[in-house]
Amino acid sequence: MSLQMSSSAVQATSRPLVELEDFSLWRQNRSVLDGLSFTLPKGQNLALVGESGAGKSTIGLALMGLLQSQGVKMAGRARFDGQDLVSLNARAWNGLRGRRLGMIFQDAGAALDPCFTIGHHLAFPLRRLLGLSSRQATERALALLESVGINDAKARLKAYPHELSGGMQQRVMIGIALACEPDLLIADEPTSALDVTIQAQIVRLIQDRVRMQGASCIFVLHDLALASQACERIVVLYAGQVMEAGLAEVVLGRSRHPYTQALKSCVIELDTAALEPPPGAAPSLDRMPSGCRFAPRCPRASERCTAEKPPLQGTEAHQIACWHPG
Ligand SMILES: Nc1ncnc2c1ncn2[C@@H]1O[C@H](COP(=O)(O)OP(=O)(O)OP(=O)(O)O)[C@@H](O)[C@H]1O
Hints:
Elements: H1 2-14, E1 18-27, E2 30-40, E3 45-49, H2 56-63, E4 73-80, E5 83-84, H3 90-96, E6 101-104, H4 108-111, H5 118-130, H6 134-147, H7 153-157, H8 166-178, E7 184-188, H9 196-212, E8 216-220, H10 224-230, E9 233-238, E10 241-247, H11 248-253, H12 258-265, E11 268-269, E12 273-274, H13 303-307, E13 313-315, E14 318-320
Parallel strand pairs: 3-8, 3-9, 6-7, 7-8
Antiparallel strand pairs: 1-2, 1-4, 4-5, 9-10, 10-14, 11-12, 13-14
The protein binds adenosine-5'-triphosphate.
């Protein structure tokens, strides 16, 4: 009996937090995500990297259940802590969003409502989702502001968003997203609206807070150096397909896919490693190549690449979808 209990406990802890298996998504009958597979173990962070239009934000929004009302079609499996998200109804989504799933958007200034104080933004989810009293929620809001490094937090509770700098607004957003201690945080380009000097600081703050809460984070980042510092795992996306995925040090250190190699070779070494696209342009949604979507830009492409989509193969530590890996 005790043996059975301990083995099921082990199973529960080893179950991935997020698991995508052959997950596809269409908008207006156009394929945006094509057969994605990757997993995120509990307690780890994962970075989605790739050029604009690769589908990084779409993955984040789908995992938050924010696309269902837009009439998108989904197929395959997307599981959160073992629960299938593809077939989830609106009521079940409301139970997950905010409470177990949190999201930080790129532009905190646009996400915060100018009519409400910072205190209201922080206290609202605490009252509504955790059922705290007004006083308890205010006390917790104060502690949250302090935890995300806002000085003079008591006065800031009464401030309106426009009275805060961009960096402080993003710190507030981090506090709001983590208010109910979610298991998964999705940070969609959390630093792109910020001055380059504080980008690493903000990513580090998210990383620290997530670790302290025993949670996981999916980052959408354009900076490969930041991605490898903040995340154990990397998924390289191109035009809605996974090109390469696995442990950050392996995917970026020993990349074998020509697209990952092209991304790395385009990195500009300044203060930070900014992501630049390889020559050519990503395909548009209504003209997706069949086979490997990177084939038209790939120096190693063969007839097979344009005819047949390469399967994602390898181990959990390193997977590659390429007929001619380097
Ligand atoms: N509301 C929408 N309606 C139709 N197509 C959309 C919509 N939003 C995104 N798309 C398309 O879906 C594809 C994936 O977009 P997505 O924003 O997920 O990419 P991304 O990798 O996050 O890009 P970026 O780095 O620029 O944010 C793109 O081709 C985009 O044009």
